[in-house]
Write a structure and sequence with these properties.
This is ATP adenylyltransferase. It is a single chain. The chain is an alpha+beta fold. It has one domain: 2-Layer Sandwich (HIT family, subunit A). Helix content is 31%, strand content 14%. It has seven helices and five strands; from the N terminus they run ααααβββαββαα. Strands 1-2-3-5-4 form a five-stranded antiparallel beta sheet. The longest helix has 22 residues. The termini are far apart.
């Protein structure tokens, strides 16, 4: 490593944990430039195969996909296939399926990773924190005691104990098959 990466200057007690892969998120790469369907990752993902798209489950009107920039290992998004921005725009069938997939995500995660709790939520609009406001998505974030340690609070770094592909395989294998 260069001296720059070692923290040139006065020696201090800090170790550096470099996470250069996060710069794409910080810079907004992969974020749609418009609200159009053609520019929407949540409209493109279902056209991919499950492993490439990190899709855990496909329903009739919604699907579960791993978050490419997770807050925690196993962080899923439940997305309707239809390109809608607001929760009130969902049809009754879409609302029911988004709720059912969210419940199943929690049950599956409990079975395979035993989280102590969950954060569930939708950020409606950019001012509310929606990174991709044009396509509604429900966050399902598993939580464990102590998962918010000093790294994210002080070091602005989140350690992820498992690769996204491995997490997808584990959750998809444990997800019950659809019963028509």
């Amino acid at each position: 490593m260069t001296d720059e990466q070692q923290g040139v200057g006065e020696a201090d007690a800090f170790q550096r944990l470099w996470t250069p892969h996060r710069i794409v998120y910080i810079k907004g790469e992969n974020k749609p430039e418009t609200a159009d369907e053609a520019d929407c990752p949540f409209c493109r993902i279902p056209k991919m195969d499950d492993a490439e798209g990190l899709i855990v489950y496909r329903g009739k009107s919604a699907y579960a996909v791993l978050n490419l920039y997770p807050y925690n290992a196993g962080h899923l998004l439940v997305c309707p296939y239809r390109h809608v921005a607001d929760y009130t725009e969902l049809t009754e069938d879409e609302t029911v399926e988004v709720a059912a997939i969210t419940k199943q995500a929690m049950q599956t995660m409990r079975e395979v990773t035993n989280p102590h709790g969950f954060n569930l939520g939708m950020n409606q609009g950019p001012v509310a924190g929606a990174g991709i406001a044009a396509h509604l998505h429900q966050h399902v974030v598993p939580r464990w005691g102590g998962d918010a340690n000093f790294l994210p609070v002080i070091g602005h770094t989140k350690t992820m104990p498992q690769l996204l592909g491995d997490t997808r395989e584990m959750l998809a294998a444990a997800w019950p098959t659809a019963k028509d």
